[in-house]
Amino acid sequence: MPLALKQVFRAQQLSLDDVCAKYPQFPRLIAIKIDVQRRGVHYTEAALSVVDPKRHQVRGSYIFGARDGQLTPVPESLVLRDGTTILTDTAPIEQNPYVVDLVDGELWLTDAGTPVEPVELWAEPAYYDKVTSSGVPMKYVITARPQRLNIFQSGYCHFWANGKGCRYCDIVNHVKEQRKEWGIPTRLRPQDVKETLIEALKEPGRFTNICLTAGSDTRGEKAFDSEVNFYIELLQAVGEVFKTRRFPSQLIATAFNEEQLAKIYIETGLTSYTADIEVLNEDIFNWVCPGKAEWVGYREWKRRLARAVDIFGRGNVGNGLVGGVELAKPHGFKTEDEALQRTLEEAEELATQGVTTVYIVWVPRPGSDFRDQKNASLEYYVRLAQGLHDLRVEYGLGVDFDDYRRCGNHPDSDLARLL
Ligand code: SF4
What we know:
It contains 14 helices and 14 strands. With 419 residues, it is of the alpha/beta class. Helix 12 packs parallel to helix 13 (378-395). Residues 157, 159, 165-166, 169, 171, 215-216, 291 line the site of iron/sulfur cluster.
């Protein structure tokens, strides 16, 4: 969409102040987080001058790329004054993002030159400067979120093998770039993971959860056996670091069948399992996620989520949405009201079966098929966050493994702190 049209479109939407006035029960700082994620940020030279890569955590290894298509070492996250984290996505200035600038020597989020909120930066974890015995920088083996350690096996996603990757996804382009620029290994070695974890846990009290994720791997005697076996290998290496049988952890992976899930549960110390369906509507799912549709199918994906509850327990099974992608053109929902109603109906159906649903704000990334699309309005994202949170309250579902402390990237689970 041309910039002039984008600005007209945005002018027709409710502003941050309008949305906060219309939904006074919704925390303003979380509304700000959402708005920053949907519009992106730009760092001024003055702001970047106070970023110290020795003290602050800067953007590093990740599965998906940024909205500006760059790998520049900008801060990984901003922290608001109530502790809310905003994983930042840098956007070109022409796209009218929020701007992080220096105001009287302090870092502030600003919008059109007006200071909005003071911000701080995440401290770099102590282990980021260390190297494994095989010579891999530890910051490329495990990355940090607020209190979570991410083991992102940044491998290839096999749904792209026949061009059927999710249409909002840029994993293949991004991973290639990261490997070229930083020499990140194509496959993590369990020994490197173990060594890095041991170092990370030396920092007292900082980390409380471990998360593993990667692209889908369709290979194996049964589809996805190869993915299952690799996660088991990594989780067993993680388990060697703990004295207890189980350790606080989350696996975000493909929707595996019951046999595969039981194998993971029995052979490792994993405590929670998430399989992201991405969009809660069968027709739109078939269009947006053709690989998932081909290899698992919409109804089967949902069935497997429900069956995972039998193994991991109620409240320990999650489902993630790319919030707003259900409105993508031309086959998405036509209005935000319809999208919200239909999405929450299906999320409720999952909640009745013990599956909790969270969302991330969809970022139309330049390396994806949906690069020219537009994400949803701030009002939509606020209503979606409130709706998913309300479902958790109504059905008594926790989200400890994916909340504001652990992940920090889901506006709906930021609301868990209000309980
Ligand atoms: S499952 Fe979809 S979103 Fe995830 S890595 Fe593969 S193509 Fe990308």
